[in-house]
Design goal:
With 68 residues, the chain is mostly helical. The chain has one domain. Helix content is 51%, strand content 6%. The chain contains three helices and two strands; from the N terminus they run αααββ. The longest helix has 16 residues. It starts with 6 loop residues before the first helix and ends with a strand.
């Protein structure tokens, strides 16, 4: 039997793809900070980005084309 995603699961997955990656990272950080029991001062220190690294790399698509 093949499992089928419900409409709400499909909509949730589509919404997830539309979200900004930074927003996802912040949400994951908040969850991890809660699990670790970090105090507010430590959360504030760790939540500010000091550097960013942008990397572009070629990806071979299913049709054989390459996109960056």
């Amino acid at each position: 039997m093949v499992a089928q995603a419900s409409r709400s699961e499909t909509v949730a997955a589509e919404s997830e793809h539309e979200r900004d990656l930074f927003e996802v990272a912040v949400e994951q950080f908040e969850i991890a900070a809660e699990v670790l029991g970090l105090d507010d001062d430590m959360r504030r220190i760790l939540s500010h980005c000091q550097r960013a690294l942008t990397v572009n790399f070629p990806v071979e698509m299913d049709d054989g084309s390459v996109q960056v």
